[in-house]
């Protein structure tokens, strides 16, 4: 596990698993924060989440890694959209 990377999904989230397999997201280490989290994209939109995870992994540098950590620590993407 890493600090920055795609969040792990649950075994019963079949649509998200399928979308992530298409984009080879399972080939990288999972993390606790990333582009989807700081942009408040949750698992209710599996295609958008998988696309965002793929874009993050494609563009990930030391600078963006630190940026996602900083944004998370400052509270960006905090909270659950489901009420």
TrEMBL record:
<dbReference type="InterPro" id="IPR003362">
    <property type="entry name" value="Bact_transf"/>
</dbReference>
<feature type="domain" description="Bacterial sugar transferase">
    <location>
        <begin position="1"/>
        <end position="73"/>
    </location>
</feature>
<keyword id="KW-0328">Glycosyltransferase</keyword>
<dbReference type="Pfam" id="PF02397">
    <property type="entry name" value="Bac_transf"/>
</dbReference>
<protein>
    <submittedName>
        <fullName>Lipid carrier: UDP-N-acetylgalactosaminyltransferase</fullName>
        <ecNumber>2.4.1.-</ecNumber>
    </submittedName>
</protein>
<dbReference type="GO" id="GO:0016757">
    <property type="term" value="F:glycosyltransferase activity"/>
</dbReference>
<keyword id="KW-0808">Transferase</keyword>
<dbReference type="GO" id="GO:0016780">
    <property type="term" value="F:phosphotransferase activity, for other substituted phosphate groups"/>
</dbReference>
<comment type="similarity">
    <text>Belongs to the bacterial sugar transferase family.</text>
</comment>
């Amino acid at each position: 596990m890493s600090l920055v990377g795609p969040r792990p999904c649950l075994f019963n989230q079949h649509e998200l698993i399928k979308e992530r397999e298409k984009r080879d997201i399972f080939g990288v280490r999972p993390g606790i924060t990333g582009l989807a989290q700081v942009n408040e994209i949750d698992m209710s939109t599996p295609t958008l989440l998988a696309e965002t995870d793929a874009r993050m992994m494609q563009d990930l540098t030391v600078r963006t890694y630190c940026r996602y950590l900083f944004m998370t620590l400052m509270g960006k993407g905090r909270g659950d959209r489901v009420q």
